[in-house]
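User: When convenient, might I ask for sequence and structure tokens for a protein?

AI:
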Amino acid sequence: MIFRPLTARAGSRRAAVPALMMRALMMRALRMIVALMLGGTPVAWSQAQAAVTTPAAAQNPAWTTPIAPFHIAGNLYYVGSQDLASYLIVTPQGDILINSSLQSSVPLIRHSVEQLGFHFSDIRILLISHAHHDHDAGSAEIIRQTHAKYMVMDADVSVVESGGRTDFAYGKSQLYPAAKVDRVLHDGDSVRLGDAVLVAHETPGHTRGCTTWTMRVHEGGRVLDVVIVGSWNVNPGYQLVDRPRHPASYPGIAADFRHTFAVLKSLHCDVFLGAHGSYFNMVAKLARLRAGAKDNVWIDPRGYRAAVQEREHAFETELARQASLP
């Protein structure tokens, strides 16, 4: 069977074509009926669906393109799409999932977990890399299906609990169903389940509570340090410098980015991963595996150091450009 993920159906609010308006009204009526049949309220259902304001596939098709899930090392597996990374950590006491991705990603993630032979209902803990809709919009649905405990870095809690509304950059454009956080994390906190221990490193800038996860896995008689980079990117529109009529995106954002790069440079990395497959050249590394690579392509400390250096240079270049503006 070929698995095809669902796609976001949110249309532009500016659409004025009568046919589109009629279709939207019909879909809203259908959602209300379904909500009532499920015992919910039509208001809550319509609000949750209306929260999706950015069609994901239009942004980047790789976000919704499925790939076969795969083993990385030890008890760590990849269950995301071609570019939106989700990770499953398997333990005898249940599993941990990192990143719920888009609302439309949930069936893809579930299919990947089950394709590997695991049970979606065994997910006990849900974590995220940061509070942007491409990494946490599916959280409410995954929690509904699995009853997992949701754990989020302190500075991102208000964003996930408001469905994106308090985000400093996308609070009016990238909304999604809100989800209640069960445990507020702080820099350096450990998340434990069974024999798995993950450490949360606050690496802010991309979001206030952006989180880089580290853990250790056993593979081939070795103990490997895994680094899952939360993000290191200065997105288009981010203001790093206070200027007249152009305030910084939030106070201290440039200092936060500098702190992030200091943290990333301090981490020992064997297995290099990230919130997007593109961070660690996932597609190219999968091609090497298909071509018969004998080594574990995910062990890439040199690639990690080079990527951190390149992203830090990109940040400093953008900071200097903005500082030079009138």
Q: What stands out?
A: Residues 1-57 have pLDDT under 50 and may be disordered. The longest strand covers residues 211-219. The first helix runs from residue 18 to 37. The domain at 66-323 is CATH 3.60.15.10 (Metallo-beta-lactamase; Chain A).
